[in-house]
Amino acid sequence: NDYRLPLLATNGVQYAKPYGHEVLDVFTCIREHTHLDAAGKLLTQNSERHLKSDAEMREIFRDLPEAIENTSRLAERLTFSLENIGYEFPSFPVPAGHDMDSFLRTITWFGAQQRYAAISSAVKQKLEEELTLITKLGFPGYFLIVWDIVNFCREHNIMVQGRGSAANSAVCYCLGITPVDPVSNNLVFERFLNESRKGWPDIDLDLPSGDRRESVIQEIYRRYGKHGAAMTANVISYRGRSAAREIGKALNFSSTILDRFSHLFANGDFPHTLELESQIEQAGLPKAHPRMPAFVRLYRAIYGLPRHLGQHSGGMIICQNKLSSFVPLENASMPGRVVAQWDKDDCEDLGIVKVDLLGLGMMSVMQDAFELCRKRGRPLDLAHIPQDDAATFEIMQKADTIGVFQIESRAQMATLPRMKPKCFYDVVIEVAIIRPGPIQGDMVHPYLARRAGRQPVAYFDPRLEPVLGRTLGVPLFQEQMLKIAMIMADFSGNEAEELRRALSFHRSEERMQKVSVKLRAAMERKGIAPDKIDKIIQSISSFALYGFPESHAISFAILAYGSAYLKVHRAPEFYVSLINNQPMGFYTPATIVKDARRHGIKVQPVCVQRSTWHCAVVSDDTIRLGFCVVNGLRQEHANELVRQRQDRQFDSLEDFKRRLPLSKDELRTLAELGALNCFAEHRRAAMWNVEETVHDDLLTPSRAVAAFVSNAESQKQAFGTSASTTAPLAPMTLSERVKADYETMNLTTGPHPMKLLRESLPNIWRAIDLPQARHGATVQIAGNVICRQRPGTAKGFVFISLEDETGVSNAIIDPNLFERFRLLITEEAFLLIEGEVQNSDCVVLIKTRDIKPLSHEQLLGSESHDFH
């Protein structure tokens, strides 16, 4: 009344339906770090704060009817919309005498002269068409800004490569943004840009992950200001594990039950096959438990709700003015970064331009390897790697591709010996073929059968031979899908792109049906046979769900081939860079070290007198592990160690301890893994000596040592010589050293754990011997589990990779067997598997019949890369 404001009626809504109060109580427990038994008055008192009907609200406020009317009038006046929020893309500063259109034309034609020995009429026509469309749509500034980012990378020695649909553009190729010539590769520009496109084009830039990529991101913040650029957000929602864990905490379940439940839970891109009630029961909660119904009810209510905001892997939005004037921004947890509170789809819907700066671990590996090659007098770069190297194709044909970009997975390794790549385009196909689209569309086996000559090459229609010729009549790429529609149904480029978007899994069933009907009708008008129409529509429909662009595959194949070449011809530089950039890829450092040794590379252990933070190349056949592989050793301490050593070598363990600020745990770890053996006879002697307290008086030995050493030995120690011979502990056995290595580094330079067990496993086949196994024979294999996979395209089948001292063997487990042994399969580090040999086309797979844990006397092994 004092302010003459009208009275409003509200229910203080916190949930939509009455049952939402239970979910709210769980979220209260999460926020307050408590559980329902202890939350007390923090919880809601009743279930009334839900959305109520008009009648219910009028009944509650029957004494204040004007409040209801005021609220209705206010609701009618609220017309806020997010359309035309005032976003403006930054203009690009151009030289005098140019506008953005003319400058883009100038640098594009200049780039064409650099890219092509002679500019053909096809190239001229393509560039002219693209430039005209870019100008018409008002996008020159976008291309110039991306070109400028690429130039910044090159000027600062940062590898950069554009990919995705941008590689379909000749303008992007001439600007140096992408490495793929779309003219010679017959790529479809409409896949990237067309007149009917709503929103901005999308150019993805791959950068080396880590500091180099971060320097590019920070440069964009510097150019456009803290409030002119931001990373886009990812909305992280509650999924199986996170929902169950938070609900379990709120219901006061024990941590052991929650841990076991998480391990039983499936993840990856496949449907979960264990019923929720059965899963929580296997985790240790009986069906009759009084809180079981509440757990199930809450789990289903919370699953899929937003959990928190994360950062997109590389999407940045930029703006001419203050981005903060129409997009909510917040400081990221990472220093120097600002994040928009909207995700990439929100930004796209509102016409806000996103530039993707994606970090690729393999680009970081390759750049590090190239720099090591240059320092060692063996210079090399990606542009000058020979494209027809026989030795590189040979390791692909043998599936010897651990550590190689994109073709190192189990599925890729199973395909490579059948594919037998002989040229670069074969690598392009290999990259694209192991994808959900080709697999679900049943295109992998027909392609491989045709390639091997077991099946004749055939086409849906003779008119499609120019489109499908390179892939033997089997559509493998999105661009082929578009061209099929353009040829068989006379679709324009815009209509073909509309088809791709409609068939995408993001779109509605209604829109999919509408465009499919349009495609079918167009082919019927052209008199195409009904059976051909059905095959074409089935092929396009299944493939479009996860279709892989050919341009994308070519960009990835360049890195796949380049990394394979490095593995063959620059092995020490390759392996060192690979370990230094972990974690990445499918394999742990332990597996990479074993693979290096199988390729003739000697791997020297960590040593405080010789190692640096990063692993280093010693010679053409030797590398040394760096402190980066040591668990619990801080990088700043390792860097100080190296700096002190450069000033003056350490002349004893006491000198080492005195000059460095290492914690007792760090010293113990270094001693246990053998890094202090330069000061002691063996690891346990070093472990004994690190426990001694360093005294300022160098002439007075500690009491602990005096109890075990003679006066003469004490005098030696006083003047800096080692007293390790006096340690009362026996040296570690070989198996103890291997175990200590895995505990302190998760890898070993010693023998593989399976080597130590081999004598006790006389009937177990080694991985290296399996190609000699007869097809259909029953064998046993065993090893350290390094990978568990259950792909969405495998209908519930599970694939397990076991590593032994000779290599990797693979087993397949059917869904029923997996459910029987689920806990054993997901929990045990070492397994013994018996099954039937499937040996075809130089690929061996064991069809599992029985699984047992492998007794290994507490030996540790490598961690597994699970269900990805």
Describe this structure in words.
This protein is 44% helix and 12% strand. The chain is α/β, with parallel strands linked by helices. It has six domains: 58 residues, no CATH class; 184 residues, glyoxalase-related enzyme like fold; 76 residues, Bacterial DNA polymerase III alpha subunit, thumb domain (Arc Repressor Mutant, subunit A, Orthogonal Bundle), CATH 1.10.10; 108 residues, no CATH class; 115 residues, no CATH class; 114 residues, Nucleic acid-binding proteins (OB fold (Dihydrolipoamide Acetyltransferase, E2P)). It has a seven-stranded mixed beta sheet, sandwiched between helices. Helix 15 crosses helix 27 and helix 31 packs antiparallel against helix 32. It is globular. The two termini are 62 Å apart.
- Counting structural domains, the number is 6
Write down the CATH topology of the largest domain. glyoxalase-related enzyme like fold
- The value of Rg in angstroms is 32 Å
Based on the structure given, which CATH architecture of the largest domain is correct? 2-Layer Sandwich
Given this structure, which CATH class of the largest domain is correct?
A: Alpha Beta
In whole angstroms, the N-to-C terminal distance is 62 Å
Strand order of the largest sheet: 1-2-7-4-3-6-5
Provide the β-strand percentage band: 5-15%
**How many strands appear in the DSSP assignment?**
17
